[in-house]
């Protein structure tokens, strides 16, 4: 069975553009019209840029037209200060390419997610470490602002905690403070166990909170907010159906080594794979998701990497060697 068909039937949304592209390309065995891909390697990281350039590509990918930059860094899991600083600098570089901020522009950082659920707490954690400076621009003399751009931050929580749509809270703040751009941080779902807490995606198309775990909310993008929205996400969970499918696929591949087993493999109904997965997941309404047992440490480290990268990208006077970043590390 094709992966895209299985994912659709199980209600699995691929948050990461690079994964959606890989699935489509493997199934079609050809390039995708209206979609461009570029790859680059910097230090310990691989950078993949997926650019959706037409409505045709938008429909095929199931994502809005725009730029999606993925930084794959397996060493992100390693508790190594030097590597984390390198990743923060790389994030700042890629983010700056999408922001195009002027010296007087202001930024609203939004930490999406549920601070009571560790795999979904990335956004609030980043806000905890974010260098906010709007109050300095509002109340301090210019000479004390120290080359810092006006940055404010909010962690609006989730509908289940507040009773208010996240987009409504953010829209109210935007109307009050009039930021030039919004940077939204959220946890993502992945189809690859290897990518959990080892990849970063930056997109200039905004974000739909909860889409990766089948809990889609109102989108946070330029159309709904009235200002550009840059989304930063890190995969922290993988759908159990994806893991089950990969395990069955690997088992079936082994059938090719034996003529008798291969005949059994050829006699299988492709739809039976989906039915088996659905039956296993039925007690959880097919919405079971998995996360690493050390997710609390991974979220803490990743949130500091992102917050440090934000500080470098947003404040002109800050570099990777600035002493002001020490508290973020």
Describe it.
41% of the residues lie in helices and 19% in strands. The chain is α/β, with parallel strands linked by helices and 329 residues long. The chain folds into two domains: 3-234 and 290-328, 3-Layer(aba) Sandwich (Rossmann fold); 244-283, no CATH class. Strands 1, 2, 3, 4, 5, 6, 7, 8 and 9 form a nine-stranded mixed sheet that branches. Strand 1 (35-42) and strand 2 form a beta hairpin. The chain is elongated and about 80 Å long. The relative contact order is 0.17.
The proportion of residues forming helix, as a percent range, comes to 40-55%
Distance between the first and last residues' Cα: 45 Å
User: How many beta-strand elements?
Assistant: 9
Annotated CATH topology of the largest domain: Rossmann fold
Q: What is the ordering of alpha helices and beta strands?
A: HHEEHEHEHHEHHEEHEHHHEH
Keywords: Hydrolase, Protease, Zymogen
GO molecular function, one term: metalloendopeptidase activity
Propeptide: 1-15
Pfam families: Peptidase_A25
């Amino acid at each position: 069975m094709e992966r895209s068909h299985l994912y659709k039937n199980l209600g699995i949304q691929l948050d990461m553009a690079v994964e959606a592209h890989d699935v489509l390309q493997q199934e079609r065995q050809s390039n995708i019209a209206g979609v461009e891909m570029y790859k680059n390697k910097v230090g310990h990281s691989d950078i993949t840029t997926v650019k959706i350039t037409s409505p045709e590509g938008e429909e095929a990918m199931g994502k809005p037209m725009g730029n999606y930059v993925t930084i794959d860094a397996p060493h992100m899991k390693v508790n190594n200060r030097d590597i984390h600083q390198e990743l923060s600098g790389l994030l700042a570089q890629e983010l700056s390419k999408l922001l195009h901020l002027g010296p007087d522009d202001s930024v609203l950082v939004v930490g999406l997610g549920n601070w009571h659920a560790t795999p979904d707490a990335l956004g609030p954690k980043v806000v905890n470490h974010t260098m906010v400076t709007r109050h300095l621009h509002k109340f301090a003399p210019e000479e004390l602002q120290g080359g810092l751009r006006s940055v404010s931050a909010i962690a609006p929580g989730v509908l289940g905690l507040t009773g208010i749509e996240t987009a409504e809270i953010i829209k109210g703040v935007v109307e009050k403070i009039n930021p030039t751009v919004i940077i939204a941080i959220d946890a993502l779902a992945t189809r690859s166990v290897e990518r959990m807490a080892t990849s970063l995606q930056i997109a200039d198309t905004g974000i739909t909170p909860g889409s990766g775990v089948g809990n889609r909310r109102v989108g946070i993008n330029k159309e709904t907010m009235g200002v550009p929205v840059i989304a930063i996400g890190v995969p922290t969970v993988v759908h159990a159906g994806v893991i089950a499918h990969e395990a069955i696929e690997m088992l079936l591949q082994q059938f090719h080594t034996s003529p008798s087993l291969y005949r059994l493999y050829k006699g299988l109904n492709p739809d039976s794979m989906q039915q088996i997965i659905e039956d296993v997941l039925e007690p959880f309404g097919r919405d079971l998701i998995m996360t690493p047992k050390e997710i609390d440490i991974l979220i803490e480290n990743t949130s500091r990497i992102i917050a440090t990268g934000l500080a470098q990208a947003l404040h002109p006077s800050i570099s990777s060697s600035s002493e002001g970043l020490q508290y973020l590390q």
